[in-house]
Amino acid sequence: MNQIFEKLIPYLDKHMAFNTAIAMLDWDNETLAPEESMEYTAKALGVLSEESFSSLINPEVKEILEELSKEKNLSDLELAIIRKLEKQFQKSEAIPPKEMREYTELTSNSGKAWQKAKRENDFSVFAPYLEKIIAFKKKFAGYGKKDGQKLYDVLLDDYEESFGMEELDLFFDKLKKEILPLLKRIQKAPQVDDSFLHLNYDIEKQKEFNRYLAEYMGFDFNRGVMAESEHPFTTNWHNHDVRITTHYYEDNLASAMLSTIHEGGHALYEMGIRDEYTQTLVGEGASCGMHESQSRFFENIVGRSRAFWEPLYKKLQDMFPKQLGKVSLENFVRALNTVKADFIRTEADELTYCLHIMVRYELEKMMIEEDVDVKELPDLWNQKYKEYLGVEPEEDSKGILQDIHWSMGDIGYFPSYALGNAFSAQIYHQMKQDIKVDELLRTGKISVIRDYLKEHIHQYGASLKPRELLKNLTGEEFNPDYYISYLKERFTKEYQLEE
Amino acid sequence: MNQIFEKLIPYLDKHMAFNTAIAMLDWDNETLAPEESMEYTAKALGVLSEESFSSLINPEVKEILEELSKEKNLSDLELAIIRKLEKQFQKSEAIPPKEMREYTELTSNSGKAWQKAKRENDFSVFAPYLEKIIAFKKKFAGYGKKDGQKLYDVLLDDYEESFGMEELDLFFDKLKKEILPLLKRIQKAPQVDDSFLHLNYDIEKQKEFNRYLAEYMGFDFNRGVMAESEHPFTTNWHNHDVRITTHYYEDNLASAMLSTIHEGGHALYEMGIRDEYTQTLVGEGASCGMHESQSRFFENIVGRSRAFWEPLYKKLQDMFPKQLGKVSLENFVRALNTVKADFIRTEADELTYCLHIMVRYELEKMMIEEDVDVKELPDLWNQKYKEYLGVEPEEDSKGILQDIHWSMGDIGYFPSYALGNAFSAQIYHQMKQDIKVDELLRTGKISVIRDYLKEHIHQYGASLKPRELLKNLTGEEFNPDYYISYLKERFTKEYQLEE
Question: How many CA atoms within 13 Å lie on the side-chain side of A331?
């Protein structure tokens, strides 16, 4: 190890230890903690968060970083860690501490205001907070922007480095041009009957099958835990302790299964990161979008395919003979691919999902770049839903108030979900040229697919950027056309439309 | 709050936060973490332990403590916290850091050596480590000792402040004089049939009953969690998040139930500490012994009594009709009170438990005060078991190697278990004069007993010392006679011996 880099280790280790603790406290709170615990545990969590921040962002680390900037004998791993650390420094130094404190207090209060507004279906409760958040985000983006850079591009860069409006506009324009007509054709085609997915499914049996499913796709229970929580999520503190949750509904068989496969995809990413990277700053996914590409790949491209279910469906039928005994594999898979334009993003099918993101992207652009009046947002939201999805939310709690993100200050986050889908399709396109994906799935050899992703994506953690990972694997720059083609091909086939 | 005391708060808060994290990591490791997790999580745990130590033991805190020593306007809570902190400072400053590091490394290795020795039934593997541990403990005790104080008294003081050999010798002499003859009489009396406790008991049903039992004794599931682990234990990070574990055996109904009641007693203590004390240095039990007094009170005095089971036994019978349908309440309770002199401390009955402690106490005295040759310990152990319990372990893994304590450097700990029993009997003696314990139990009003303990013991946390708590409640100094009388009365009755 480089001798100057070595001086960083105690700081990096503390940061890792505090983040381990924070992640475990959060996990525990979502899955197990008794009702009255958090009111007190929050105090410990607050201290740990401050310590996590100041363990890295302090004058001593800054000095070491300056020394390191003159160093030449640094390994790739050391360089990658330094890059990550420098980025964190720049972000945190750009904003005056006083403004940061005001902003932190604001987002803490706006979270409660958003909850109240959603519960009471009253946007006016949340609007003044959103207005202030937008003002802060614009100010902060102003501090961080480079010459000629637009403010929303600065925000987008926070979540998906180097993906700005120019590229996203092109992407969403294509989606609009190609997917909107496809959706209209599907809506006119004969509809799929998926009512059998909503019969009564015993929860204990569902648990048994979902555990089997996780194991089947390669989730290693010697290095992972599966539990339940209100909203499914994945967390981990290193590559040997990765945890996923699911939520079970008695009247919805697909919900838990697709959650398990989705979170399982996130988990395989974290389990696949190299041992030498785990517990370092690059021991995590390359970006939000790249992480989402893995979960979406498993959930949609794999988990809703006929090939995936071919070796599995019999077992599911045997478990629920009354509900599924007479349902053919074909009809089961068609039901998993039902397209239904609706209000709620998190319940959206694969085809319409990106249209939900497009609405949010366009509104965020208006907030940051066009000084839209916050009061107009609910109507704008509803107009766009009407235009793109053909539905209009009856109330703001199912419209403008449905997502938590803006109340937490996350403006610029949503597009990374759409990018994740596009990444997954580009990766899939290459994968099909290298291995026989369908045949492997049909014959239960999903481990070959998992190893392929580990080899080309997972193992690198955040030591390479998403664009580098894509380029190395596919020999091509990011290209959203693969996603559009994939969606068109898949749903033309599922709905037996004419080409 | 005193202005100088206020300067301590950031240090105390960090210490609290790090200890919260450590306790949760330990809990998670014992109850849930996947097999391969700890190898990596240990790194985070190591950092958190160092941070926990240095958050309090540092020059800044020392300076504030010196300022505080001149302060007069300090509340009782502030004074209690300062006392605790000063004691920690004295202990840690007495030992040169280099020796402390050597000792820490030694106990880390000796743990593994002890495990190996026990597994292979070979004391010689552990003996050289024990020899070094004894040497270190004597050296450390020498640093901390006051004029004329004996070394073993310094060690005893670490676990149960101010209880030294003088008092313990008297206590154990009485036990020897009174309990050994009683045990001999019991061994000659007609023996109790407890074979029905060892039939096959479905684990899921046991879990249901044990959860009911915990709730019945007042364990508040809004502020607590119950789980499973190899060895039952209690942990908590504040008074609103207290967790207990149990271990279930299909062929042993009493084991899990008595564990639940025992750990439940520890849990009620922690749940009962005042809100203003929790998350401070006095937000814990008054001492090891006082904590044990609460768990033992519930396990033995309450949990093995006829009165306790009167309102509960029917429910248990209904749950296990095949196994218990024909067993009367009387025979059930007698079976819970079976006396059987045997090798293993953790499985000992109420009567012989303290004899197991006596063996350890006498050997520890020999180690520290009489320079006994470590090689002689196994034989000495076996001789004492023969003398006091009338049994001789066939092998060292069931003899001198059975307990983990010495391998962790805990010499002087065992007597606090015995003191806990004695405390509980003294408290019980007073309680019976204040409330109708048996009648309350018989009529299911156990909450009155719990509130009594909360009022007189639990709420104070570690703000009062055990001797103060006993004196305040009973109007008397510590007096082990109550324990001896209690044992004699109870077992004379259970075994229907003539008075």
Answer: 13
Query: In A412-454, at which residue ranges do the beta strands (DSSP E only) sit?
Result: none
CA angle B388, B391, B393 (to 5 degrees): 120
Instruction: Give the best residue of B9, B20, B239, B245 to mutate against chain A (max A CB count within 10 A).
Output: B20
The separation between CA B191 and the C-alpha centre of its own chain, rounded to angstroms, equals 30
Q: Does B41 touch chain A (CB under 8 A)?
A: yes
Q: Token match 């936060």: residue? A: B17
Residues of chain A with Cβ-Cβ distance to B45 below 8 Å are 17
Query: How far is A408 from A405, CA to CA, in rounded Å?
Result: 5
Helix, strand, or coil (residue B224): strand
Rounded-to-integer distance, Cα B107 and Cα B112, Å: 9
Catalytic machinery residues of A: 263
Residue B47 near chain A (CB below 8 Å): yes
Q: At A332, is the pLDDT very low, low, confident or very high (cuts 50, 70, 90)?
A: very high
For the annotated catalytic residues of B, the residue numbers are 263
**pTM: predicted TM-score of the whole model, two decimal places:** 0.94
User: Which of A37, A47, A221 lies at the smallest CB-CB distance from B34?
Assistant: A221
Tens digit of each residue's pLDDT (9 = 90 or more) over A131-165: 999 999 999 999 988 889 999 999 999 999 999 99
Distance between CA atoms of B466 and B427, rounded to whole angstroms? 11
What is chain B's length?
499
Residues 6+ apart with CB under 8 A from A303: A257, A258, A261, A262, A336
> Cα(B14)–Cα(B19) distance, rounded to whole angstroms?
8
B196-252, pLDDT tens digit by residue? 999 999 999 999 999 999 999 999 999 999 999 999 999 999 999 999 999 999 999
* Interface A-B: count of C-beta contacts within 8 A: 122
Which DSSP helix (H) or strand (E) runs through A242?
strand A241-246
Note whether B16 contacts A278, CB cutoff 8 Å: no
Number of alpha carbons in the 13 Å side-chain half-sphere of residue A429: 21
**Strand, coil or helix: what is A419?**
helix
The verdict on A366 touching B (C-beta cutoff 8 Å) is no
* pLDDT computed for residue A92 by the predictor: 85
Residue A41 to residue B13, Cβ atoms within 8 A? no
Q: What is the pLDDT of residue B94?
A: 87
Cβ contacts (< 8 Å) between B221 and chain A: which residues?
Answer: 34
Partners of residue A228 on adjacent β-strands: A246
ipTM of the complex: 0.92
pLDDT in tens, B96-131: 989 998 999 999 899 999 999 999 999 999 999 999
Bridge partner residues of A467 (DSSP): none
**A13 touching chain B per CB within 8 A:** yes
Asked whether A247 and A229 are in contact (CB, 8 A), the reply is yes
Can you list the alpha helix ranges (DSSP code H) found in A273-328? 288-296, 306-309, 313-319, 321-324
Nearest chain A residue (CA) to B16: A44
Q: Which two tokens stand for residue A184?
A: 């209209």
Burial B22-37, CB ≥16 within 10 A → b, else e = bbbbebbbbbbbbebb
Contact B164, B157 (CB under 8 A): yes
Using one digit for the tens of pLDDT, what is the confidence trace for B34-80?
A: 999 999 999 999 999 999 999 999 999 999 999 999 999 999 999 99
> How are strands ordered across the β-sheet holding B224-228?
B224-228, B241-246, B234-238
User: Using CB atoms and an 8 Å cut-off, which of residues 191-230 of chain A contact chain B?
Assistant: 221-225
Q: What is the mean pLDDT of residues B165-182?
A: 96
Q: How far is A348 from chain B (nearest CA, A)?
A: 33
Across the interface, whether the CB atoms of A37 and B241 are under 8 A apart is answered yes
Q: Which residues of A touch B24 (CB under 8 A)?
A: 21, 24-25, 28
